[in-house]
Amino acid sequence: MKKYEVEKLEKKLENFYKKDRIISSYEKEIERLSRDINNIEKRIKECDFNIPVTYGSSSFSERVQSSNSGESNAEKELMKLILRLENKKIEKNKEIERIRDIINSIEEDSFKIRRNLYSLKLDYINLIELKYKYGKSNRAIAIETHMSESTISRKIKTILKEVKSWQLTFMYKNTINEIEIIKNI
Fold first, then answer.
1. According to DSSP H, which parts of 47-137 are helical?
2. Cα 63 from Cα 70, distance rounded (Å)
3. Where do the structural domains in the chain lie, given as residue ranges?
4. Class of domain 120-184 as given by CATH
5. Superkingdom of this entry's organism (predicted)?
6. Is 36 exposed, middle or buried (0-12, 13-18, 19+ CB in 10 A)?
7. N or C: more exposed end of the chain, with fewer CB within 10 A?
8. 3-state SS assignment for residue 41
């Protein structure tokens, strides 16, 4: 396995054990963004803007001259402010969707891991918990389990290969299901 694949699998196993905390923090971020969106909508609805005095009243030249759009400087400035707020609102909605995608990805990975985790040997499950749930180093695990550090590394590589095979199996099953659905259409 390549290094980036190992890192990706390790991150998924860590996320499996830290799932609730990670999702909780993402949900708090969604709540904050939703409050920001509500505040923006409230400001727009109530026209809660501070426009500088220089834009407030129309000057004599503005009254005499006609503009192409028929808008005063104050109206133009107000429209710019509203447009900026609308753009912020759009960006915050995009961020909420991005976070929801992350949460869904974590939950999917967690489901796959949970479904297959208990098919492993008990000592492999213990190693996974020590390494990814409690965040212990290979040396600390070796001391605790009375094994050599190289044995721990070898077993963890074996476990990661097993986890990768779960993912490939799941992807293969999904592909077959999608093909069957397409054939039925």
1. 53-56, 60-64, 73-117, 122-128
2. 11
3. 19-53+72-119, 120-184
4. mainly alpha
5. Bacteria
6. middle
7. C
8. helix
Lowest mean pLDDT among 27-36, 87-96, 159-168: 159-168
Within 8 A by CB and 6+ apart from 153, the residues are: 138
Q: Which two tokens stand for residue 127?
A: 């190693």
State the virtual CA torsion across 121, 123, 127, 129 in degrees, nearest 10: 70
Work out the angle between the directed axes of helices 3-46 and 149-184 (0-180°, nearest 10): 60
Q: Mind listing the pLDDT tens digit for each residue in 101-154? A: 999 988 888 888 888 887 888 888 999 999 999 999 999 999 999 999 999 999
Joined together, the tokens standing for residue 89 give 């609102």
Contacts of 36 (CB under 8 A, 6+ apart): 88, 92
Secondary structure (3-state) at 66: coil
Structure tokens at 54: 């220089």
83's tokens: 């447009």
Query: For residues 46 and 25, what is the distance between their CA atoms, to the nearest angstrom?
Result: 32
Burial class (CB in 10 A: 0-12, 13-18, 19+), 44: middle
Distance CA 155, CA 165 (A): 15
pTM: 0.66
